[in-house]
């Protein structure tokens, strides 16, 4: 049976649209290092950057001690705080997959349970990039063992990025 190119293209587009599951544009980005020495991801449509760090920094990479998941939203220069600051900042954790994407659980590292973690505004006046700082409550959120997606409302529009720990 012969399938036309148009039918194949239409079918692929329909499958991709059905798999999206959300109207929030989320793009997986290659990370760079930000001013707080954390992975920094560019937001879609060049809205700026988000840097993810743990505060306090874990002393033991095997996990066990609670830490907060902190997001710094930065302008396109990658250093200055985003103005106005975003709202509705959340990190959706996917605990069903290892940070390296092979499935299973990370061995020897704290692994956060699946779910949505709310990040609340907690600006730091003494930090040049701290005006757009958002933090979670303390929990098992070591970045090298967490995989998921961060979403926020920037300039009134939902946006987000995916994150895979274990740089």
Structure characterization notes:
With 167 residues, this protein is mainly β. It has one domain (25-164). Helix content is 10%, strand content 34%. The protein has one helix and ten strands. It has one helix at residues 5-20; strands spanning 26-28, 32-33, 39-42, 49-55, 68-74, 87-93, 115-121, 133-135, 147-154, 157-164. A ten-stranded mixed β-sheet has the order 1-10-9-6-7-8-5-4-3-2, with no helix packed on it. Strand 9 (147-154) and strand 10 (157-164) form a beta hairpin. The longest helix has 16 residues, at 5-20. The radius of gyration is 18 Å and the shape is globular. The model is unreliable at 1-30 and 97-111 (pLDDT under 50).
Cα-atom radius of gyration: 18 Å
Domain unit count: 1
| Structural class by sheet pairing and helices | mainly beta
Proportion in β-strands: 25-35%
Oligomer: single chain
What's the pLDDT, averaged over the residues?
77
- State the order of secondary-structure elements, H for helix, E for strand: HEEEEEEEEEE
Strand order of the largest sheet: 1-10-9-6-7-8-5-4-3-2
Main beta-sheet strand count, sense and barrel state: 10 strands, mixed
First and last CA, distance: 46 Å
Number of strands: 10
**What spatial form do the alpha-carbon principal axes imply?**
globular
Low-confidence stretches: 1-30, 97-111
What is the number of helices? 1
Q: What helical percentage do the residues reach?
A: under 10%
């Amino acid at each position: 049976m012969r399938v036309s190119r148009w039918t194949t293209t239409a079918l692929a587009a329909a499958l991709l649209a059905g798999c999206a599951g959300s109207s929030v544009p989320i793009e997986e980005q290659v990370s760079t290092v930000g001013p707080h020495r954390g992975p920094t991801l560019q937001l879609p449509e060049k809205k700026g950057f988000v840097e993810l760090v743990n505060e306090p920094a874990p002393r033991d990479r095997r996990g066990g001690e609670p830490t907060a998941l902190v997001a710094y939203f930065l302008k396109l220069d990658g250093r200055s705080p985003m103005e106005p600051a975003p709202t509705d900042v959340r990190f959706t954790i996917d605990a069903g997959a290892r940070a390296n994407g092979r499935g299973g659980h990370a061995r020897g590292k704290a692994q956060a349970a699946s779910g949505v973690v709310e990040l609340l505004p907690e600006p730091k006046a003494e930090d040049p990039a701290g005006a757009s700082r958002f933090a979670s409550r303390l929990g098992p959120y070591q970045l090298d063992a967490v995989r998921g997606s961060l979403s926020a409302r920037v300039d009134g529009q939902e946006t987000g990025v995916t994150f895979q720990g274990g740089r």
